[in-house]
Amino acid sequence: MKVQLTDSPGSDKLRIVIRRHLQHKLRSLARKFPLVTLMGPRQSGKTTLCRATFPAKAYVSLEDPDTREYALKDPRGFLADHAKGAILDEVQRAPGLLSYLQTDIDRRPTRGRFILTGSANLALLESVTQSLAGRTALLTLLPLGLDEVRRFGRRDDSLYGLLWRGSYPAVYDRELPPNDWYAAYVGTYVERDVRQMVNVGNLLSFQTFLKMCAARAGQLLNLSALGADCGISHVTARAWVSILEASFLVHRLPPFHSHLNTRLIKAPKLHFFDSGIVCYLLGIRDPQQLRNHPLRGAIFETWAVSEIAKARLHRGLPTNLCFYRDRKGLEVDAVVEAARELIAVETKSGQTVASDFFSSLDAFAQLIATAERASPMKRILVYGGSELQHRGRATVLPWSMIDRLDWERGTLGPR
Predict the structure, then answer these.
(1) What integer pLDDT is reported at residue 8 of this predicted model?
(2) Residues with Cβ within 8 Å of residue 329, at least 6 apart in sequence
(3) Cα separations (Å) of 352 from 57, 291, 298, 346, 357?
(4) Cβ distance 338 to 409 under 8 Å?
(5) CA dist list (Å): 36 to 92, 115, 319
(6) At what angle do helices 121-131 and 97-107 cross, to 10 degrees?
(7) How far apart are CA 125 and CA 386, in angstroms?
(8) What secondary structure does DSSP assign to 34-47, as a single string?
(9) CA-CA-CA-CA torsion for 393, 399, 401, 407, nearest 10 degrees?
(10) According to DSSP H, which parts of 314-408 are helical?
(11) What domains, with CATH codes, occur in the chain?
(12) Which of 71, 190, 313, 378 lies in the 20 to 30 Å Cα band around 395?
């Protein structure tokens, strides 16, 4: 749903501002906490969301050098200027401010005074947990979910068009060519954000590392093999994956192990939060190339997992996501540990449902049923076709309906 049209800086087009799912939770928590901290990748829409949700609040960007210098050199004066509260954008750029903010909040714990945003997860989270523990609520805003993409009015029904285009708002609200936008985004990320987080001596090596990670999206993360392929050590590979996680480009999906005594794989899976970045890094330049790409299935899987993560995080829920794989080769792409049951998810990019699509879900269901503490479970097959099927073995869910499933209850809602 379009809620606002505003002039887009640097463009003669109107910018579309849509309602984000997280808005309700953001407003709700601001009524309960003196601070709310909103984290997420650059360009995911944090600033737009905060300013749309709290239009009466002063807005301050700590990316601005003069403003940042003022906040760091005279934090008391800076906070006095904003005694009624403000939106403090990219607060990880001025971590020293948070200690003074703690004192200010303790003196005046008015609910909803400050809204903080940040794009560097580890740096910001460390500062927040040290200085603002118990004073702030934490939320995460990722790029658009499928239902949010639809609010931009696009009528592109192609699965491969969606995966290739990705889910960053700028690609939709300004109708920018995805290849051009992702080239600028990745280039800026490597040149700017990586340098801020860690001293990477060879940026070219880091760019190669980023591309090799994209080639491993949806696969088990083997740091030794990844490092060897990039000409770096295991230790460096681990540190660089942490950088990608800190900036919300990737996430490690942990293995499921609850209540099971079988021998399990302990390595996590590597997933990206955005399929458009994966396609760009792999050199996929149009949807047709993606349709015929050997990593099509892995890209579809990482997209589906990211959609589940968004559906939960954008409603203020923890992801509670993992996957199952044992040493015999049995694997289930995703397992959601929901409120009352497990939701086991298998992904297939094909448009035709084959009987062997259900074999992993069936075997996993038997394991869970015979576990020491059995849990109720729903089985979901997300596939590249268009027909919803309620089979005895699983719910067959078309990719275009992934946003209709309630990923906390496992039930389908209306369109």
Answers:
(1) 36
(2) none
(3) 51, 15, 17, 14, 10
(4) yes
(5) 14, 5, 19
(6) 40
(7) 41
(8) SEEEEE--TTSSHH
(9) 70
(10) 359-369
(11) 21-140 (3.40.50.300), 146-412 (no CATH)
(12) 313
The letter for the amino acid at 242 is: S
Separation of first and last alpha carbons in the chain: 13
Q: Do residues 408 and 377 touch, judged by C-beta distance below 8 A? A: no
Rounded distance, CA 137 to CA 139, Å? 7
Residues 3-33: pLDDT tens digits?
Answer: 443 333 334 444 567 899 999 999 999 999 9
Token reading at 246: 């800190």
Q: For 158, which DSSP code?
A: -
The reported pLDDT for the residue numbered 265 is 79
Cα separation, 291 vs 52, in Å, equals 37
CA atoms within 13 Å, Cβ hemisphere of 352: 1
Residue 87 — φ and ψ, nearest 5°? -90, 115
- Which candidate, 323, 357, 364, 353, places its Cα nearest to that of 219? 323
Q: Tell me the residue type at 4.
A: Q
For residue 359, which of 401, 329, 400 has the smallest C-alpha distance?
329
- Residue numbers of the chain with a pLDDT score lower than 70: 1-16, 121-125, 127, 129, 154-157, 198-199, 201, 258-263, 372-373, 415
Where do the H-state alpha helices sit in 155-274?
159-165, 169-173, 178-188, 194-197, 203-215, 223-230, 234-246
Mean pLDDT over each residue of the chain, to the nearest integer: 89
Cα(3)–Cα(301) distance, rounded to whole angstroms? 32
Distance CA 72, CA 284 (A): 43
